[in-house]
Amino acid sequence: MGKMKNYFESEFNSSRVQTQTFTLTPPLELMTEWKVENIHGHQYVYQNRVLVMDENVTLKTYNINGKIMWGKRLRKDNYRLGISEGMLLFDNDLVICNIGDNIVRINVENGKMSETFFSKDFDLSNSIITSGIFIYHSLNDDDDFVCNAVKYNTGDFLWSKRINHIPHFITSANQKVLLVEDRGKISCFDVESGEKIWEHAEKINNGFVDILSISRIFDDSVYLNFTNNKVLKLRMNDGYVLWEKYVSNNADNLNVYPDGKLYLVDYNSYICVDAENGKIIRNFPMLQQFQKENLFQPTQLCVSDTHLFLGGIKTGKIVAINKENGNIDWSFSCKAGIPLYNFMQIKDEKLFVTDSDGNLYVFREIK
């Protein structure tokens, strides 16, 4: 079947393993807009298609102009999706999603469905597939949290590791699995054997701190930011701390881009950090600009070569921040707020955004 393309690894700008660059420079214009009733989660752009799941467990596929190509009801009963269900992964022409405790595969061309395997309390949102191995967390028979590895093509079970908490994030690169738990604990395992390679626990004098953002991997290093405003770079091979930096920013949307820089934006500031040495390159106050744009509680970052795109959770305002000078060069008001879990996407020089009412917007550069 080949290597699985994970939503966070290859297709989207919010990737944990960031290898792609994206060209998109404001000002932008609204290319098309359509509404998806009872939307669950956010849009996925794959092979020039836009895929969305609704609360009634129907997977819908559109072209980029909003014309529906097919819709597939994945369950015939009155089942409604939970918050951790209905996430999508991709593998060539297959879409993989979790419905209840079942993992199903759907052909992206025609919607034809086949069931794969069952797992108790499975959460696809904290799962990855790398080198043909499915890494996910679930509950075992004793209701303990465990991290599991299964051969995706055959369903053969490889290993299971008991963990103390629900993992915030699972990431993988270079035949290693990175598991981020509560209280600032990070563990690294071998993908095939499950053997623990290293562990890092972030501690402070009065207890523990938590990790704010998805762990990012770039150039064989792991980047994390914590609730105590620390940004940390670890070597992926052995967990060695390469540098640590305290910043005046409590952003939960750290992003690493192939230009060798880290980008952090919270309500008060935009900070750019050199990924190589941890030196702060830029630090711009953003409070007045955000207030002027009526943008509160910024969402996850979406990064292009020139700009940082983010939205407002409550107001639905989308803005583009100039990387070099911190100015807001473009903005747009959606009809509803942008959910915190929503990931804007840049694909083929277009920006894809979904608001909380299911309005899906596609923007392009003004030529």
Characterization of this structure:
The protein is mainly beta. A hairpin with a 3-residue loop joins strand 25 (261-265) and strand 26. It is built from two helices and 34 strands. The protein has helices spanning 7-11, 287-292, and strands at residues 28-35, 39-46, 49-54, 58-63, 68-73, 88-91, 94-99, 102-107, 113-118, 128-130, 133-139, 145-151, 157-162, 169-173, 176-180, 185-190, 196-201, 203-204, 207-208, 216-218, 221-225, 230-235, 241-246, 255-257, 261-265, 269-274, 280-285, 302-303, 307-311, 317-322, 328-333, 345-347, 350-354, 359-365. The strands form nine sheets. A four-stranded antiparallel β-sheet has the order 1-34-33-32, with no helix packed on it. A four-stranded antiparallel β-sheet has the order 2-3-4-5, with no helix packed on it. The chain has one domain (7-365): Methylamine Dehydrogenase, Chain H (7 Propeller). 3% of the residues lie in helices and 49% in strands. The radius of gyration is 20 Å and the shape is globular.
How much helix, percentage-wise, in residues? Answer: under 10%
Structural class based on helices, strands and sheet pairing: mainly beta
Head-to-tail CA distance between termini: 40 Å
Number of domains: 1
Radius of gyration: 20 Å
CATH architecture descriptor: 7 Propeller
Q: Tell me, what is the CATH class?
A: Mainly Beta
Portion in strands:
over 45%
Mean model confidence by pLDDT: 81
Number of separate strands: 34
Oligomer: single chain
Query: How would you write the strand order of the largest sheet?
Result: 1-34-33-32
Number of helices: 2
Shape assignment: globular
> Superfamily at the CATH H level?
YVTN repeat-like/Quinoprotein amine dehydrogenase
Give the biggest sheet.
Answer: 4 strands, antiparallel
What low-confidence regions span 5 or more consecutive residues with pLDDT below 50? 1-17
CATH topology: Methylamine Dehydrogenase, Chain H
